[in-house]
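Ex. 9. Protein: Glyoxalase.
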Amino acid sequence: MKPKMIWSNLAVANLERTYKFYTDLGFKPNGPHTSDQLVSFFFGEKDFIIHFFLKHIIEANLKQIQFCDTEKVNEIVFTLSAETKDQVDAWAKEVEKAGGTIISEPESFGDHYYGFVFADPDGHKFNVFYM
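Predicted structure tokens for Glyoxalase:
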């Protein structure tokens, strides 16, 4: 297989809240792919796309797939690469200010690693990582 692109589709409860959270963090909206059923953002220098669909819409469209309760289980953990420890610390503050939940505070681990884990308002997990 040689797909032209890859992107992610996640389920959310409230599009306005999701849009505000990710724009507050500075992510660029993927305007042509935003509607009353989803909001979409570019992540990283290579513009990885994450679509955030209303849960009932994505489940209806994918028929046999049921999305998990992100308060109880993880569907995926994305990793966001930071350039410095100071940037990790700054992003943790930005996440909290935007309404995210810090799951694990910024800390060193292993020989050369520093980071933290957060959840967005719908419980989607992100690992912020500097190495």
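Check your answer against this statement. DSSP finds three helices and eight strands in the chain.
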